[in-house]
Amino acid sequence: MFSEAAVREIQEIRAKYPTARAALLPAIYVAQREFGWLTPEAYEAVSDLLGVPKAIARGVGTFYAMYKQKPMGRHVVQLCTNVSCMILGAERLVDFLKSRFGLEPGGTTPDGRFSLVIMECIGACGTAPAMLVNDDFYENLTEKSIEDILGKYD
Amino acid sequence: MITVTINGKEIRLEKPVTVLEAARSAGIKIPTLCYHEQLEKYGGCRLCLVEVEKMPRLQTACTLMAADGMVVRTETEAIADVRRGVLEFLLINHPLDCPYCDKAGECELQDLVEKYGPTTGRFKEKKRKVPESLEDPVLVRNMERCVVCTRCVRMCEGVQGAAAIGVINRGGHSHIEPFSGGRFDCEYCGNCVSACPVGAIMSRLHRHSYRPWQLVSETVTICPYCGVGCTLVAQVRDDVIKRVVPRIGTPVNNGLLCSRGRFGYEFVGSKERLITPLIKKNGVLEQSTWEEAIGFVARRLGEIKSKFGSDAIAGIASPRCTNEDNYVFQKFMRVVLGTNNIDSTARTGYAGAQAFLENIFGQGATANLIPGLVNADAVLIAGGDPTAVNPILGLQIRSCARKGGNILTIGHVKGVRHYSPTELKPGIHAETALLEGIVTALRERKGLPGSIQALESKIKEIHRPADDTARTCGVTEKALASFVEALSTASTPAVVIGKEVIQSAGGSYNLLLLSAISYLVNARIHLLSERANEQGVVDMGCAPDLLPGSRPLSYVEFRRRYEAAWKVPLPEKPGMTIFDMIDAAKAGSLRALYVMGENPVFNLPNAKGVEAALRGLELLVVQDIFMTETARMADVVFPALSWAEREGTFTNMERRLQILRKAVNREGMEDWRIVAEISGNMGVKMHFSSAEDIFAEITRVSPLHRDLSYEEIAKSGIYPYKGEPLRGVTGDIKIEKTTAGDGGGLFLGVERPLFHSGTLSRRAPGLVKIYETAVARISPATAAARSLKEGDVVRVSSAVGSLELPVAIDLSVRDAVVMITNNFEGRGALSLMELVLEPILRAPIADKTAVTIEKVGR
User: Fold this and answer.
1) Interfacial residues of B (vs A; Cβ cutoff 8 Å)
2) pLDDT above 80 (res B727)
3) For a surface tag, which of A86, B62, B268, B623 has the fewest beta carbons within 10 Å of its beta carbon?
4) Half-sphere exposure in the Cβ direction for B310 (13 Å, CA)
5) For B430-485, what is each residue's pLDDT tens digit?
6) Residue B491's pLDDT is what?
7) Which chain B residue has the Cα nearest residue A47?
8) What is the helix, strand, coil percentage profile of chain A, to 5?
9) What pLDDT score does B90 carry?
10) Higher pLDDT, B550 or B537
11) Could you tell me the CA-to-CA distances from B235 to B217, B218, B313 in Å, in that order?
């Protein structure tokens, strides 16, 4: 079940869109935040609140790569390995995350602190390599800067 | 007029249609995969691409509207190339497992590839692997075969309105899944199975036991379950029904089926079917011969008649038997045995309610076309969930909502909850007050039309102001006002009446109030019917006060007419209702009861009481297809042929006559033939050789069926009732009011599930797998107040019985109500219900049975 605040938030989202289905994407984000990842209960909660059938809500949720379809760590690191980032060393950074933090692409650290998602281009080619940690954006990454940045999240 | 040229052929079109439809109308075939005539256009598969002059690219014929002067070509080398390409793409992932796929032979992809496809593919990658899902009891999903045409999803959402499945994931990983990922947990209409062009979603019933081309025999017949009367096609191999499918273009259901129709047919081939006649000897039913059993019954009936008189014998007819069976049965009772003691379980609500409404509005008041509901602009639902009781009628209500119609419900109606219904949810036993409030408000807004005086004088006595209504019923004045607003502004409203308002302490008054609403807003009335021939059993005169054609026995001139036709004097005295029969059996004045295709020990309230009453009979004869609770008590049991093994007609709730046809062969006799044999043995020969013969006699004696023939019915499934009121309005409307509110405590409610129908569905394994066992459904508040959890076993007790059942917590159940189905052996809701009759409708009162629940285990 949603918290009262989340219910209000989704109702506000709903009011901005002409149809309930149009409000699905932002509403699923709220559900993901509330439930940690997109559990069946999360979809059901969205479905109940928006009046969109749950199978449809799940269909929409599974279409997008940026939703969490399985349990994830407390913080999600999303690192780009597309062309610019790759040329500027993103693949080395992937290896670094593995050796320093035990973080495999698609995996979660045993302590549940971080999950790593290799993502497609986030439009930061000019300041590559780039990544997101949760909703925070970081650019011009090096092994050192990654270590400092991740140290801030616990 | 639009003129298009397709492949050099000039086509004139009356109305705007797509290029695909234009081509098909001229007999030009364009291949399609995602197109389905019952679904929204999609344009996804790209197989219907055509060349249109002056358009730069190929166009999808299924979405392109034909415009005047358009020149289209459907078969060119460029198009053939594209089709080959599309099919090559589809075959990247589609497995070539046709040899063991049940769809092979009627697979649209197979046909297309055979005709248009490449002989080899150029892709070397491995095909995607998705394990076949056998998690569902009746549906199997093989997503390797899925071509993502989304026909099933569009069918499920846009037509069925269940939206239980969706496309999940993206691109090459897309496939169809129900929400759970495994079990469908849906309405199990199986319309996705009809929609699937390949073998991706299929029925598990009779899986791998036939090939489509082996289903050489196909019978178009009528569904045996509810009163909607859907046409279905039974496909047979070696005298076993292998599957039941719908057909587009049939009346009422037009290509759709519900769970009962599609998955409920297996009872026909059940091993539990009765095979030989049985006679009770020394307290045990023993196998006998037809000759012996018929002779025995004829002799005993004769003895009882001469010893105790005709009225010591009674008959119970069946809303599951055909018109012909019921006609012969009532004729036997009246002509041979000389009594009007004949009735059926239609008495438990349908018959009384219909008589009440016809008394106000004239005969045919409830005979309204089901597909007409789509065009209503407001539908008021009271007394049940039409999507469960009469599913295909329920779909029409959903379509109506989709087209913008207002759905108004008294109480929570689960099946329309996704269609933004305007709900008024009265507290327990407060429906009557709420209806009074609605009538009062409507009358103030609309005034009285001035056409039916008897009804208007009753309406004038009804007065319940909005504030009082709101207070009494626990609704808000605002909600009441918007409800009345929607109803009073509607121009083509409909009122759908279910059994719960009829089987209630103020049943006749509730019906008066619903009549008043219908009258004030000029609405059509639909009376929900749970049995396939509930209307027919009444129309055939299987009622103590009616002759065939629903002609009242009390009118001398009608009686004379039948006497002339049957060449015997008829008993004048109205007979006993089904409930009078039980009372008379208990009192000892009824000596013999002949039950045809009915199970009163289970289907009447107070099972133990009925059982005890029947035990006192000197002779109990039962005709059935299974050993029912009643058959077990019988002195003689005759095995009847089932719905699929014979011909006849059913009359559906619209009073549409439709023909049942024989799908499989079986040795034995139809119900009517058994009755006729006994009649002959008693010295009164009935000269019928077939159901059609009987129907010919019906059309001679019943004014309702005058001048009809099988031939005429077969053409279209006929709507015989020609609209002329056969019985006038009597002018006297009798009602019985009761006071609302008896606060506190729990009451029994009868659940009418989508997946079951009386005792027939018990023997349909497909349906039993979907809904396996009886449960006591209670609301979360009821559960919380008693610290009950899902799955706890409780004892539900009433004054007349008790049942131990697991608890199911259900949001759609009202507080203070315990809902139990009446389907599972030894665990029927009616066994808890006291038999108290509403004095006017003479239907049992179902909503006043107080029950208690106590936890007995987990």
Assistant:
1) 157, 162-170, 177-180, 418, 420
2) no
3) A86
4) 18
5) 999 999 999 999 999 999 998 888 999 999 999 999 999 999 999 999 999 999 99
6) 95
7) B418
8) 50, 10, 35
9) 94
10) B537
11) 6, 5, 42
Identity of the residue in B169, B170, B179 whose CB atom sits nearest the CB atom of A54: B179
Confidence of residue A128 (pLDDT cuts 50, 70, 90): very high
Domains along chain A? Answer: 4-63 (1.10.10), 75-151 (3.40.30.10)
Residue B788's DSSP bridge partners are none
- Give the per-residue pLDDT at B16: 93
Interface contact B179-A55, CB threshold 8 A: yes
Mean pLDDT confidence for A88-113: 93
Task: Cite the residue boundaries of each domain of chain B with CATH code 3.10.20.740.
Answer: 2-75
Residue A1 near chain B (CB below 8 Å) = no
What number does CATH give the domain B746-857? Answer: 2.40.40.20
Q: Please identify among residues 31-70 of chain A the ones whose CB lies closer than 8 Å to any CB of chain B.
A: 40, 43, 51, 53-56, 58-59, 62-65
Residue B716: pLDDT above 70?
Answer: no
Contact B179 A43 (CB under 8 A): yes
Of A40, A53, A63, the CB nearest to B418: A53
Contact assessment for residue B805 and residue B826, using Cβ atoms and an 8 Å cutoff: no
Burial class (CB in 10 A: 0-12, 13-18, 19+), B66: buried
Cβ neighbours of residue B246 closer than 8 Å, sequence gap 6 or more: B191, B194, B230, B231, B232, B233, B253, B254, B255, B256, B257, B261, B262
Closest alpha carbon within chain A to B175: A59
Q: What is the ipTM metric for this complex? A: 0.85
Residues of A in contact with B180 (CB under 8 A): 40
Region label for B174, one of left (φ > 0), alpha (ψ between -120 and 50) or beta (otherwise): beta
Looking at the partner chain, which of A40, A43, A51 has a beta carbon nearest the beta carbon of B418? Answer: A51
- The whole-number pLDDT of residue B743 equals 58
What is the pLDDT at residue B552? 87
Residues of CATH 2.40.40.20 domain(s) within chain B? Answer: 746-857
Residue A22 is predicted with a pLDDT of 96
Is A56 close to B163, i.e. CB distance below 8 A? Answer: yes
CATH of the domain spanning B2-75: 3.10.20.740
Residues of chain A contacting residue B136, judged by C-beta atoms under 8 Å apart: none
Q: Could you confirm whether domain B363-527 is CATH 3.40.228.10?
A: yes
**What is residue B362's predicted lDDT score, i.e. its pLDDT?**
85
How much of chain B exceeds pLDDT 70, in percent? 97
Across the interface, whether the CB atoms of A54 and B177 are under 8 A apart is answered no
> Are B179 and A40 within 8 A, CB to CB?
yes
Structure confidence at residue B584 (pLDDT): 97
Where does CATH 3.40.50.740 sit in chain B?
278-344+542-653+664-705
d(CA B47, CA B43): 9
Q: Between chain A and chain B, how many beta carbons pairs sit less than 8 Å apart?
A: 37
Distance from CA of A151 to the nearest CA of B (A): 34
Whose tokens are 């928006």? That residue is A50
- Whether A62 sits inside 8 A of B169 (CB atoms) is yes
Give residue B739's pLDDT. 59
Q: Using CB atoms, which residue from A51, A58, A64 is nearest to B166?
A: A58
- Please report the pLDDT score of residue B721 as a whole number: 57
Nearest CB among B162, B166, B420 relative to A59 is that of: B166
Q: Which two tokens stand for residue A92?
A: 């080395």
Which architecture does CATH list for B278-344+542-653+664-705? 3-Layer(aba) Sandwich (3.40)
Find how far residue B26's CA is from the centre of its chain: 38
User: For all residues of chain B together, what is the average pLDDT?
Assistant: 93
3-state percent breakdown (helix, strand, coil) of chain B, nearest 5: 35, 20, 45
